[in-house]
Amino acid sequence: xxxxxxxxxxxxxHARSGGLADFALRMTLxxxxxxxxxxxxxxxxxxxxxxxxxxxxxxxxxxxxxxxVNRSDWRVLC
Length: 78
Prior knowledge:
Strand content: 5-15%
Largest sheet: 2 strands, parallel
Oligomer: single chain
């Protein structure tokens, strides 16, 4: 395969929550599998301050899974 992409849809009780659990789950999956992710961001002060926390979920999961995650593969749409 050349330039293949994988999209992982969260399943289970968090799949439709739409809250903080979704961000944590998606970032955790990205870290676990060492894949890029697209996040919806906010230009509010609180939204911008939450970005490092979100990235932390990915870094922690990558460390636990023995993978790496690269911030250049993270897209934030505002």
